[in-house]
């Protein structure tokens, strides 16, 4: 495949991801953390896109969330892209590292067509400039990159009143959309009232959420105008819970359940 053909393929996958964000139906992405977990999700006909979980990838390599070297992340997500074929892959790129534009360029180089990049509550202007740098780098590569710009207004908001976090998320979300982001990721356990305010303030089909214990269902978020739901590190936690539970059974002289599927 020539370089131009590869870029066209990336462009098509990126546009597919952007179209999924804009569709009336909420985009449900089940986060993966390595090739075998990706293949298990790709085998399901409901899978329209893949999203990597940065926390889970960091844990896989023994790093705390947000501290894994970029080279390790890119090597692994590139392997996931190779397994995904025509399915678009969006990656968790933490805060974009030292040079967010260069990080995006390198991510596109391994086949990533969208990303989460978190603001860590940096000043709004600085965070918006990082969004612009990411999308300028993508534009230079000829890829309509689907940036899911994350604001930590809730998860790093401390004990401030929820109204302040809502206002902060809306201000940041609008700034990131103006800078070219596709959607705005607002992680946290968001009830219907908070979600409604975020959608009203940021835009219909412009808010992305995380599905956590205690949060709404995907269908409930969809009815409120949310564009996308992902599940972050919780999918790996489910897998590890199952592993630990079966290990306890085996230590107690149990056997591998007959319902176990050969997914590897």
Task: Please outline what is shown here.
This protein is an alpha/beta fold. It has helices at residues 3-22, 35-42, 54-60, 70-84, 100-109, 124-140, 162-178, 192-202, 218-223, 234-251; strands at residues 27-28, 31-32, 50-52, 89-92, 114-118, 146-150, 183-185, 207-210, 228-230. The protein has a single domain (3-251), classed as Phosphoenolpyruvate-binding domains (TIM Barrel).
What does this structure look like?
With 264 residues, the chain is α/β, with parallel strands linked by helices. It has one domain (3-251): TIM Barrel, CATH 3.20.20.60. It contains ten helices and nine strands. A nine-stranded parallel β-sheet has the order 1-9-8-7-6-5-4-3-2. Helix 2 (35-42) runs parallel beside helix 4 and helix 7 (162-178) runs parallel beside helix 8. The radius of gyration is 18 Å and the shape is globular. Residues 1-5 have low confidence and may be disordered.
Radius of gyration: 18 Å
What ranges have pLDDT less than 50 throughout 5 or more consecutive residues? Answer: 1-5
Question: The CATH topology is what?
Answer: TIM Barrel
Largest sheet: 9 strands, parallel
Number of domains: 1
CATH class descriptor name: Alpha Beta
Mean of all residue-level pLDDT scores: 96
């Amino acid at each position: 495949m020539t370089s131009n053909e590869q870029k066209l393929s990336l462009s098509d996958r990126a546009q597919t991801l952007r179209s999924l964000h804009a569709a009336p139906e909420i985009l449900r992405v089940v986060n993966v953390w390595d090739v075998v977990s990706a293949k298990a999700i790709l085998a399901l006909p409901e899978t329209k896109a893949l999203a990597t979980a940065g926390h889970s990838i960091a844990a896989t390599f023994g790093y705390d969330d947000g501290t894994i070297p970029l080279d390790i992340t890119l090597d692994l997500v590139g392997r996931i892209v190779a397994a995904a074929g025509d399915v678009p892959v969006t990656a968790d790129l933490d805060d974009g590292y030292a040079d967010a534009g260069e990080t995006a360029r390198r991510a596109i180089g391994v086949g990533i067509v969208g990303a989460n990049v978190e603001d860590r509550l940096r000043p709004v202007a600085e965070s918006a400039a990082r969004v612009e740098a990411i999308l300028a780098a993508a534009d230079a590569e000829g890829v309509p990159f689907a940036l899911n710009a994350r604001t930590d207004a809730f998860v790093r908001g401390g004990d401030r009143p929820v109204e302040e976090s809502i206002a902060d998320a809306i201000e940041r979300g609008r700034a990131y959309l103006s800078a070219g982001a596709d959607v705005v990721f607002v992680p946290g356990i968001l009830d219907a009232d908070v979600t409604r305010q975020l959608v009203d303030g940021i835009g219909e089909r412009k808010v992305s959420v995380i599905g956590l214990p205690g949060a709404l269902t995907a269908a409930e978020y969809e009815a409120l105008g949310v564009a996308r739901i992902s599940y972050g590190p919780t999918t790996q936690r489910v897998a590890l819970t199952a592993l630990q539970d079966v290990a306890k059974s085996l230590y107690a002289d149990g056997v591998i359940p007959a319902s176990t599927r050969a997914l590897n």
